[in-house]
């Protein structure tokens, strides 16, 4: 809202009125929550957390001692806050889909 107000050269209240009342945009959020974590995936998560703890404790010296046997990569993901997940949508826009409901339909 601050960026819109600055771009239009208007106050925050005026920008809020234009976006909400005139254009009828509202903030919505959707989030993904895994329904089930298989035993194998739980082991991968546990191993990844252990490696991360050791790296934090030992720094770069720990990385020099790692020997890998394949090209498997794990992505470290820190979930966003609910506020950061929100996005602007028009009232006539379709409801946001979250991956949890899509995953449930695929099962």
**Estimated radius of gyration:** 22 Å
**Count of individual beta strands:** 2
What is the distance, rounded to the nearest whole angstrom, between the alpha carbons of the first and last residues?
40 Å
* General form: elongated
Roughly what fraction of the amino acids lie in strands? 5-15%
Number of domains: 2
Largest sheet, strands/sense/barrel: 2 strands, antiparallel
Order of helices and strands: HHEHHHEH
Percent of residues in helices: 40-55%
**Physical arrangement of strands within the biggest beta sheet:** 1-2
Q: Would you tell me the overall average pLDDT?
A: 76
**Low-pLDDT regions:** 100-107
Account of the protein in words:
By secondary structure, the protein is mostly helical. The chain folds into 2 domains: 1-31 and 86-107, no CATH class; 37-78, no CATH class. The protein is built from 6 helices and 2 strands; from the N terminus they run H-H-E-H-H-H-E-H. The chain has helices at residues 2-8, 12-22, 39-58, 60-63, 82-85, 99-106; strands spanning 25-28, 87-90. It has a two-stranded antiparallel ribbon. Helix 1 crosses helix 2. The longest helix has 20 residues, at 39-58. It is elongated. Mean pLDDT is 76; it is low at 100-107.
């Amino acid at each position: 809202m601050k960026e819109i107000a600055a771009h239009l050269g208007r106050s925050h209240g005026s920008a809020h009125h234009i976006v909400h009342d005139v254009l009828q945009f509202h903030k919505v959020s959707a989030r993904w929550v895994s329904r089930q974590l298989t035993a194998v995936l739980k082991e991968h998560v546990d191993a990844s957390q252990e490696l991360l703890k050791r790296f934090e404790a030992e720094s770069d010296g720990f990385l020099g001692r790692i020997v890998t046997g394949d090209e498997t990569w794990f992505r470290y993901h820190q979930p966003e806050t609910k506020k950061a997940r929100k996005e602007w949508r028009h009232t006539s826009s379709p409801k946001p889909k979250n991956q949890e409901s899509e995953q449930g339909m695929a099962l």
